[in-house]
Automatic annotation (TrEMBL):
Xref: CDD domains: TM_PBP1_LivM_like
Residue runs in coiled coils: none
Subcellular location: Cell membrane
GO molecular function: branched-chain amino acid transmembrane transporter activity
Protein name per UniProt: Branched-chain amino acid ABC transporter permease
Keyword terms of this UniProt record: Cell membrane, Membrane, Transmembrane, Transmembrane helix
Pfam family name, one: BPD_transp_2
Membrane topology: Multi-pass membrane protein
Transmembrane helix among keywords: yes
Predominant cellular place of this UniProt entry's protein: membrane
Entry's Gene Ontology cellular component terms: plasma membrane
Amino acid sequence: MATWKRTRGFWVSVILAFAFFAVVEWLIASGTLNVFYVNTLFFMAINVMLAASLHLIIGITGQFSIGHAGFFAVGAYASAVMTMKLQLPFAVGVLTAGVAAALAGLIIGVPSLRLKGDYLAIATLGFGEIVRIALLNIDYVGGASGMTVTHMTTWPWVFACLFATILVIANFTNSTHGRACISIREDEIAADAMGINTTYYKVAAFVIGSFFAGIAGALYAHHFYIIQPSNFGFLKSFDILIFVVLGGLGSLSGAVVAAVLLTIVSTFLQNYPETRMIIYSIVLILVMLYRPTGLMGTKELSSLFKWRKAAQGGMNHGGKNTVA
């Protein structure tokens, strides 16, 4: 019974997630959701994966990275090469995308994470631009004209990858390793003095975040038929950064909510190309003015239920309030 009470919230979340999957699968199979809404749903899920993966790097470990689009691009092109050039199954392409992006994260992470703050941001931004320029000049992957990719992304694949991303990052955050990353974010010098291997945990967070960004790249490449280096510029990195900051640094729920809301806003403003970015910017400014800590701050959605229980107050068997 005690174990059930501790894990009840987790299993309820899992059941709701699979119920949502079943409903959406039925809507897609029955044709109730047209292509526009399916594309929006897939793009929303990909953005949530990107936001969650960057949340681990910035929100949890406190490493200011603005080159996330580089790992997104590595995953997209690695998976496309596997499926289109080598004719391997989509599953192999997805796994290769994650591993390739993780290796890129390791390569850039080990030397760059000696840097802090603005200097780290500049280094990661440089990495993202190096990846984009390199792809522009590699004829094997189409160069500037891009690479045509067969559509292989389906709702089960999107849901499975999204579910795995949220599950792994949430559990990592709540583990002892996550606590170590949070201590680095709060005070790296104090964490190092307490015996925490700060370099190891910063690189680990970078590698895990890069891995899931690569997975998102594989889904993106095999859904939108064509990938071009221009899709992965520094503006894409800033879009992902906005998801994390707007949702609240340190809140996985906030990053997810912000990614969903901004994807919806951006999609439905496509009918107004002249004023789309103006309205989009106004929305961001208003939110940051009235919620400077982000939509969720450092809180998670699960904490709302804890507040509700706390508001009810503890009751003993005699029906009187108790004090913890």
